[in-house]
Protein backbone atom coordinates (compact mmCIF):
# COMPACT_ATOMS: atom_id res chain seq x y z
CA UNK A 1 0.00 0.00 0.00
CA UNK A 2 1.34 3.46 -0.87
CA UNK A 3 2.55 5.64 1.97
CA UNK A 4 1.21 8.72 0.19
CA UNK A 5 -2.45 9.70 0.41
CA UNK A 6 -3.95 12.57 -1.56
CA UNK A 7 -7.33 14.18 -1.02
CA UNK A 8 -8.28 16.16 -4.09
CA UNK A 9 -10.93 17.24 -6.59
CA UNK A 10 -10.90 16.18 -10.22
CA UNK A 11 -11.49 19.65 -11.70
CA UNK A 12 -9.28 21.58 -9.28
CA UNK A 13 -6.14 23.11 -10.87
CA UNK A 14 -4.30 22.98 -7.54
CA UNK A 15 -5.07 19.28 -7.22
CA UNK A 16 -3.96 18.74 -10.82
CA UNK A 17 -0.63 20.42 -10.06
CA UNK A 18 -0.01 17.89 -7.28
CA UNK A 19 -1.15 14.91 -9.37
CA UNK A 20 1.17 16.03 -12.18
CA UNK A 21 4.13 16.09 -9.78
CA UNK A 22 3.25 12.67 -8.37
CA UNK A 23 3.10 11.24 -11.91
CA UNK A 24 6.30 13.04 -12.94
CA UNK A 25 8.10 11.40 -10.00
CA UNK A 26 6.40 8.07 -10.76
CA UNK A 27 5.07 7.80 -7.21
CA UNK A 28 2.27 5.48 -6.18
CA UNK A 29 -0.40 7.09 -4.06
CA UNK A 30 -3.89 6.52 -2.76
CA UNK A 31 -6.32 9.11 -4.06
CA UNK A 32 -9.56 10.16 -2.41
CA UNK A 33 -11.67 12.45 -4.57
CA UNK A 34 -13.75 14.73 -2.37
CA UNK A 35 -17.14 16.23 -3.25
CA UNK A 36 -17.30 19.70 -4.77
CA UNK A 37 -19.36 21.08 -1.88
CA UNK A 38 -17.22 21.97 1.14
CA UNK A 39 -20.02 20.88 3.49
CA UNK A 40 -19.84 17.33 2.12
CA UNK A 41 -16.09 16.88 2.71
CA UNK A 42 -16.48 15.26 6.11
CA UNK A 43 -13.63 12.75 5.80
CA UNK A 44 -10.94 15.30 4.98
CA UNK A 45 -12.36 17.70 7.58
CA UNK A 46 -12.20 15.01 10.28
CA UNK A 47 -8.55 14.30 9.45
CA UNK A 48 -7.35 17.89 9.00
CA UNK A 49 -9.85 20.25 10.59
CA UNK A 50 -10.36 21.98 7.23
CA UNK A 51 -12.16 21.27 3.97
CA UNK A 52 -9.75 22.68 1.38
CA UNK A 53 -7.90 20.45 -1.06
CA UNK A 54 -5.43 19.26 -2.11
CA UNK A 55 -4.22 17.63 1.10
CA UNK A 56 -1.28 15.25 1.19
CA UNK A 57 -0.42 12.71 3.88
CA UNK A 58 2.88 10.83 3.75
CA UNK A 59 4.30 8.48 6.37
CA UNK A 60 7.77 9.84 5.53
CA UNK A 61 6.77 13.43 6.35
CA UNK A 62 7.44 15.17 9.67
CA UNK A 63 4.27 17.24 9.38
CA UNK A 64 0.91 15.57 9.95
CA UNK A 65 -0.22 16.74 6.50
CA UNK A 66 0.36 19.43 3.88
CA UNK A 67 -2.54 21.44 2.48
CA UNK A 68 -1.05 23.89 -0.03
CA UNK A 69 -0.28 22.74 -3.57
CA UNK A 70 3.01 24.67 -3.79
CA UNK A 71 4.16 23.31 -0.41
CA UNK A 72 3.17 19.79 -1.48
CA UNK A 73 5.06 20.01 -4.78
CA UNK A 74 8.15 21.42 -3.03
CA UNK A 75 7.99 18.62 -0.44
CA UNK A 76 7.67 15.95 -3.14
CA UNK A 77 10.67 17.41 -4.99
CA UNK A 78 12.80 17.44 -1.83
CA UNK A 79 11.75 14.01 -0.64
CA UNK A 80 11.53 12.01 -3.87
CA UNK A 81 13.61 13.69 -6.62
UniProtKB/TrEMBL annotation:
Pfam families recorded: GST_N_3
Domain of life: Archaea
Every GST N-terminal domain range: 2-81
Protein name: Glutaredoxin
Organism listed in the record: Halovenus carboxidivorans
Amino acid sequence: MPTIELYDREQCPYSQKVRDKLHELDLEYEETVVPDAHGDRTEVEQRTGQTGVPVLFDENMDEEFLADSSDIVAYLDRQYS
